[in-house]
Amino acid sequence: MLASYVLLDLETTGGNPVHDRITEIAAIRVDHGLVSARWQSLVDPERPIPGTIQRLTGITDAMVACAPRFEQLADKLLELLEGAVLVAHNVRFDHGFLKNALARAGVDLRARTLCTVRLSRRLEPQCSGHGLDAIQARHALVNPARHRAMGDVLVLQAWLQRMAELHGEQALREHAQALLQAGASLPPHLQTDVAQLPEGPGVYLFHGDGQIPLYVGKSVNLRRRVLSHFQADHREAREMRISQEVRRIEIRETAGELGALLLEARLVKQLQPLFNRKLRRDNRLCSWRMAEDPREQPLLGLVRDEVLDPTCFGQLFGTYRSRRQALDSLRTLAEQHGLCLRVLGLESGRGRCFAHQLGRCRGACCGEETPQHHAARVRAALAAERLRAWPYDGPVGLREVAADGQRSEVHVFDQWRHLGTARDEAELDELLHARQRDDAFGFDLDTYRLLLAHLCNPRRPPPQVLRLRGPHAA
């Protein structure tokens, strides 16, 4: 099949290559068609083996109690893999465990890999099952010890011999070489041809067997970003789970990075993917509003998102996810600037506040500091938290043009709200008509921060802003 390759199988304490450990290794090395080495060993995982795994593999804690630790076997394993392709059934699993185990031993594993699940799909595309049990049953292969490392390796060896008999040694070699060139680190069950993914900006959706997407992400280079997920799965438990469950990849291209960011935020909130965390969070907002009269108590009132009006952002301070977060932040500012907790509404009672008795309040609660002076200090302390007023007198569009000039989009905003994205004049007219009919476009904190970064970041080139006055561009 290949000049030099190692058929390998591992048994482990579980499916997570970061946290679980190897309990057994078996390998057969083949050079120029002949077996040159055969090796197997139990491995002390240095932790208990779960009962379900013991029942599945037959490997018990007592069996591995006196076995060598992986670090003691690393040199032998590396010698076996030297100059050879690592071949395994769902090679990502075995490669991930080996790479993590060797990294803990201070060694960086660099080995080409070939997945026999993917090879089976290429050789027998008409068949529905390509797991080890399926190919074993389909070709009447005998496994002397299923779920033991050497037993599974022997089945792989027998299967490769059967494939050479059925398809010819030359065809088997060509398919194996094609998989090596295409990148055998891809999940074996992935139905999407990653080589056909675009290299421009957009959003990608990982789909498994269920209705809810596994993950939604964005990138300025979709193909490279998707591949990076599969290259990182041996280091991160989440990436490993995604690669194990993903079946197909959906792509939605955009003209530029801003369009990808906006689309990602909307899809994550709309679809609630299983492995997205940050953008799925509750998007409710709290903000402090300062009373116009400095003598009013409490001087600050908490405004929640249901009554928060972006047209009043110039009088609001802070973007807090909860009332508790807003209160904690205000208490910290009061302590840093010597503000009066009672005037701010954080402490009840009359007369001198407790902080004044400790020398931490300048006396706004007892007449030693005027309300006007105290209010000015409060405003100065909150200045960095002040929400930006909308800098335009109506809706605007931010135009993005793809690098190749083949795609153009206008992202329409008003009062920090994203009204939508238009790809032509008709869509732009529809967005502005919809705004006139229904002004209920919701405020989104992530969109506010994203737009601030694009409009007000001096390190970014200024975007192309279109002033939109009516149902069409001005």
Number of E-state strands = 15
CATH class division of the largest domain: Alpha Beta
How much is the radius of gyration in Å? 31 Å
**Poorly predicted runs of 5 or more residues:** none
Percentage of residues assigned to helices = 25-40%
When the domains are counted, the total is 4
**CATH architecture verdict of the largest domain:** 2-Layer Sandwich
Q: What kind of oligomer do you see?
A: single chain
The largest sheet, given as strand count, sense and whether it forms a barrel, is:
5 strands, mixed
- Which range does the strand content fall in? 15-25%
How many helices in DSSP terms?
17
Strand order of the largest sheet: 3-2-1-4-5
- Could you tell me the mean pLDDT? 88
Q: What class, by secondary structure content? A: alpha+beta
